[in-house]
Amino acid sequence: MARTKEFDPDAALQSALELFWRRGYEATSMADLVEHLGVGRASIYATFGNKHDLYLKALDRYQQARNPQLLRELSQPGPALPAVRAVVRRFATEAATGERRLSGCFVTNTATELAPHDTDAARRVEHNWDHLETLLHAALVRAEAQSELPAGRDPLALARMLLVLMQGLRVVGKASTDPARVQDAAEQALTLLD
Length: 194
What we know:
The chain is mainly α. It has helices spanning 9-23, 30-37, 41-48, 51-74, 81-96, 98-103, 106-113, 119-145, 155-175, 179-190. InterPro entries: Homeodomain-like_sf, HTH_TetR, Tet_transcr_reg_TetR-rel_C_sf, TetR_C.
């Protein structure tokens, strides 16, 4: 008869996500995971695979939690541009202030640390960016259809610009001690929607 797991895999995955998000992949050892999760090494391997597998599962979990929130924010009925502006401003605020500033965005952290040499991580980062770009593009197409955007603006190009801006905000916000740098950049970019 198989033994029952003595820990909650869902809680352990969330705990691993938080540790990887705070410290990064390379700076988190298997010993760190064992200590932080309070789960034996063999149980971690049996449940999640190796450290890399666990990291990818944590990244998937992060995206599954964040993406529905963005979908709700960007697809609400009514004018679309206020929702787009609110999302960009929220990214800027999170990047410039509070406890999230030093952690950054788990996807952005993965893009800078792992994606250049890890195809599995790069594929997940691209998937996340494609999803965010699609949400922004759909909202901007709605804004165009509702005459909220000035004539001649390209919703796809604007969505891509905002995606790159939002990811850049996370990188700069994590390293900069000047919140105005991030806030001013976001506000300047938003003038392109006027």
